[in-house]
Amino acid sequence: MIVDVHTHFYRADVDWGDHVREDLERCGFALEQWRFEPEDHLAAVEAADAAIVFGLRAAATGWAVPNDAVAEHVRRRPDKLVFFASPDPAQDDAMAELERCHQDLGCQGVKLGPIYQGVHPLDKRNYEIYGYCQRHGLPIMIHMATTFSSGVPLDYARPAHMDQVAVDFPELKIVLPHLGHPWEGEAIAAIRKSPNLFADVSALYYRPWQFYNSMRLLVEYGAQNKVLFGSDFPACTTADSIVGLRGVNAIPKATGLPEIPEDVIEAIIHRDALALLGIRPPCGEA
Ligand SMILES: [Zn+2]
After folding, report:
1. How close is the Cα of 254 to the center of ligand 1, in Å?
2. Residue 171 C-alpha to ligand 1 middle, in angstroms?
3. Fewer C-beta within 10 Å: the chain N or C terminus?
């Protein structure tokens, strides 16, 4: 079983504010690479048995993906896609939107991004969301890693903050994307010590030296069983991410440095993230 825990859905032309376009261009990204049609998302997750998909609501940095648009997309492939909702904790209606997404749209988890939303991970507005998710068994995917987006302090994305959250909400299942890059050490320390904290390996393989070092760190700390597979589409597809992960030993093979054990790599690719996060497998008719 292959579960892609990290895929994005948005319609660039209507869901991006100027802030997003300006940040992408300033960081040297070709905007065309970040545009896609709903069918492209479906094709990109072809190699996965299940894929978690979310939008992003973050007025502070120009993201306004309607949760209804994501839920509608998920209904195209209910046999494969799992809907996570994105409430914006900076907005007064965040809790009402979360309840609506849970009770009316059937979300199975929540996506947050303090560095996009401009709300500190330990802010009481995020704590309200964590409390709701813990009570209702909804896992949280919370962006704790750097980004191209400007205007919010980098500190809001430090994985170490989620150690405190894990202490305060011990039953809440939390995923830290991208192994917390460039703070992989913090993310690994955090997931190792709290049973319900996990990380994903999405969007890392194309920085091969950093990815190799992060994977060595992970293995040396023995925290590899807390790591889930993901792609971060549209950054890459599920299939690209599998190939990229399996390619992590290109550097040690060329240099004699210690390799990442193959069984560690395969276990990450085939880990049943749905079971670990308490999500029922998608089972609708395609
Ligand atoms: Zn992402």
Report:
1. 31
2. 24
3. C
- Residue 283 located in a structural domain: no
CA of 7 to the centre of ligand 1 (A): 7
| CB 265, CB 245: distance < 8 Å | yes
Rounded distance from Cα 21 to ligand 1 centre (Å):
16
Strands 174-176 and 3-8: unpaired
pTM for this predicted structure: 0.96
Question: In a 10 Å sphere around its CB, with 0-12 CB exposed, 13-18 middle and 19+ buried, how is residue 280 labelled?
Answer: exposed
Q: How far apart are the CA of 8 and the centre of ligand 1, in A?
A: 6
Is residue 286 situated within a structural domain? no
Can you spell out the DSSP letters for 253-273?
A: HHH-PPPPPHHHHHHHHT--H
CATH number for the domain spanning 77: value is 3.20.20.140
Q: How far is the CA of 6 from the centre of ligand 1 (A)?
A: 6
Domain region containing 213: 3-277
Answer whether residue 66 is part of any domain: yes
Per-residue pLDDT reduced to its tens digit, 276-286: 999 999 987 66
CA-based nearest residue to 60, from 83, 89, 24, 34: 89
**pLDDT tens, position by position, 218-255:** 999 999 999 999 999 999 999 999 999 999 999 999 99
Instruction: Supply the angle between the helices 262-269 and 238-246 in degrees, to the nearest 10.
Output: 170
231 CA from centroid of ligand 1 (Å)? 8
The number of angstroms, rounded, from the C-alpha of 70 to the middle of its chain's C-alpha atoms is 15
Distance 237 CA to ligand 1 centre (A): 12
- Report if residue 284 sits inside a domain: no
Check residue 286 and give its pLDDT: 63
Kindly report, residue by residue over 38-80, the tens digit of the pLDDT.
Answer: 999 999 999 999 999 999 999 999 999 999 999 999 999 999 9
Q: How many domains does the chain have?
A: 1
Average pLDDT, the chain: 96
